[in-house]
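>> received
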Amino acid sequence: MTYSIIMHRIVLIFLFSSSIFADPVPAFIEALDSATFATSTPANDPDDWLMAHVDVETTGLVPGYHEMIDVGIVMTDLDGNELDRLFLRIMPNHPDRAQPGAVAVNGFSVGRWNELGFNTPLQAVRKIVDFHHRVVRNKHVLFVGYNAWFDISFLDHLFRDQGSSWRALYHYFVLDLPSMAWSLGIRDLAGQEMTAKLGIERETTDPLEHTGITGAESNVSAYRALLRIKYEKSGTSQ
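>> returned
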């Protein structure tokens, strides 16, 4: 048997064994097959686009270790006009990981969530998906957040853990409100200072009242204020 034939057989054996022992494709990757492909942009077809203003509360700062304990979503058009909203409390799988700093902000405890009512992570994902399809129908949606990487990272882990993907709902471009403000010369990063400069009502800091939906409402107010400043600077009407 010649050397070339031996090497050819070794390669075939390697390829065959690799296919047998290859890691299976995760469900959250397969879920990307249901992500819609945008054939337009908000610039050339604004009526075909919506915005999901999202805020989440969590047990800490590290996505994948800490978890979401609630989420608020306010769906608007590109001018910030509200279409619908959703608020869900979620019982995390590891409530023992809750950091004191996070609890001081959002008032989370297992006892309080049992009293108020909550969703499991799987129920939360299903309700977010149902809400999305009911409100959005066939339009494209941009995810908008305040320090958006934080919110989308936690949403990503919530969906991944349930074999789903947030990309099946939202466009892969994610919009960040402080970045929008920065482009207008407003460089306050903290929400309280930002709202003061924008001239809008501050979100509550009471941990018993502070939730994802109060955050989402505040985000919409900030977005509207930024639009107003933009139009005032350009001398045009909204």
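>> The chain has a mean pLDDT of 90.
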